[in-house]
């Protein structure tokens, strides 16, 4: 089968193979025919060899598809089911995080796309205990964005977003725009998205989705938007963005960090956070319940992330990676099938 493979350690070493072995369904696992798989920043880092990986390994961990083979002992799933899957494979179940039920934080887990074979391929093998069924009416294109949606929901759970609250989001990447859309769908009275002028096109896209947007053009942005947001979300991991989030939040407000920094340490506006008694929350990965709620939001029809996606063929993977790196695509989805499969809703 065709598969996009990280063949060796080091920068680069990513090739589209035409003769990669098709997986089979082992006990407790299924084989999924891939409908679509989204490019994440992690995939770029694996290409650059700045994220852990175990080559040779098929890339891709944000995916949707249909079951074509079921292994021994699998219950509640059958051939033909449309599915997505959590990424927490091979969690040790013995560390502190696992024993607390937070398998997503297990330091030993080996997620598809870097630890075990992922879904930039025609088929992928997946453990049945991490599967979720896609509701009828939700397209494969929309469902492919379940994983980053679940990440955002997990983060918003940590800060206990309430109906009627005002929310600020910094950064117009997939996590930033999705967080803004979910906050809006969850009853926020106002959602504001900030970004640099280099992201003007992404701000324009967010504006078409009902999000209020402003550019960070060097002027005093707080003089424009104020400093009384109930919740500020930084999706960038940049120190200046986190500090802006702190200064834009009302006293006793909350700040949610959803980004990873490229630096080991960043500057931190300690006094501003302390004198405002700000609660700062860090959130990493996604919890089990967030996946079902992500799919339920999509099925309800008041949240559809398809608008931020662009579609590419597996053969054209280099263009997809290029457009993500150059920020001309927000969420690129690669499919090994005809593009029309992504429109299937049952």
From TrEMBL:
Keywords: Metal-binding, Oxidoreductase, Zinc. The keyword Oxidoreductase applies. GO terms for molecular function: oxidoreductase activity; zinc ion binding. InterPro entries: ADH-like_C, ADH-like_N, ADH_Zn_CS, ER, GroES-like_sf, NAD(P)-bd_dom_sf, Zn_alcohol_dh. Residues 10-334 form the Enoyl reductase (ER) domain. This is Unannotated protein.
């Amino acid at each position: 089968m065709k598969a996009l493979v990280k063949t060796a350690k080091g920068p680069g070493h990513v090739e589209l193979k035409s003769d990669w072995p098709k997986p089979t369904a082992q006990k407790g696992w299924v084989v999924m025919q891939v409908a679509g798989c989204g490019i994440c920043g992690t995939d770029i880092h694996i290409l650059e060899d700045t994220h852990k990986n175990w080559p040779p390994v098929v890339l891709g961990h944000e995916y949707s598809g249909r079951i074509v083979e079921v292994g021994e002992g699998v219950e509640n799933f059958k051939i033909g089911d449309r599915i997505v899957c959590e990424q927490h494979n091979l969690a040790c179940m013995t560390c502190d995080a696992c024993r607390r039920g937070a398998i997503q934080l297990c330091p030993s887990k080996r997620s598809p796309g870097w630890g075990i074979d992922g879904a930039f391929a025609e088929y992928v093998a997946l453990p049945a205990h991490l599967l979720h069924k896609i509701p009828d009416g939700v397209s494969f294109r929309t469902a492919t964005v379940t994983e980053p949606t679940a990440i955002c929901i997990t983060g918003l759970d940590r800060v206990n977003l309430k109906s009627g609250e005002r929310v600020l989001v910094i950064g117009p990447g997939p996590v930033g725009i999705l967080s803004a859309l979910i906050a809006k769908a969850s009853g926020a009275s106002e959602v504001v998205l900030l970004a640099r002028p280099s992201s003007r096109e992404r701000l324009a896209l967010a504006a078409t989705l009902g999000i209020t947007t402003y550019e960070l053009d060097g002027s005093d942005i707080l003089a424009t938007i104020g400093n009384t947001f109930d919740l500020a979300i930084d999706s960038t991991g940049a120190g200046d963005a986190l500090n802006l989030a702190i200064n834009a939040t009302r006293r006793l407000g909350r700040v949610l960090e959803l980004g990873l920094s490229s630096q080991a340490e960043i500057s931190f506006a300690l006094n501003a956070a302390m004198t405002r008694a700000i609660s700062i929350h860090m959130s990493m990965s996604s919890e089990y319940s967030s996946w079902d709620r992500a799919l339920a939001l999509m099925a309800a029809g008041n949240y559809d992330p398809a608008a931020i996606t662009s579609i590419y063929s597996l053969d054209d993977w280099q263009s997809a990676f290029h457009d993500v790196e150059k920020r001309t695509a927000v969420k690129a989805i690669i499919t090994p099938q005809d593009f029309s499969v992504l429109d299937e809703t049952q």
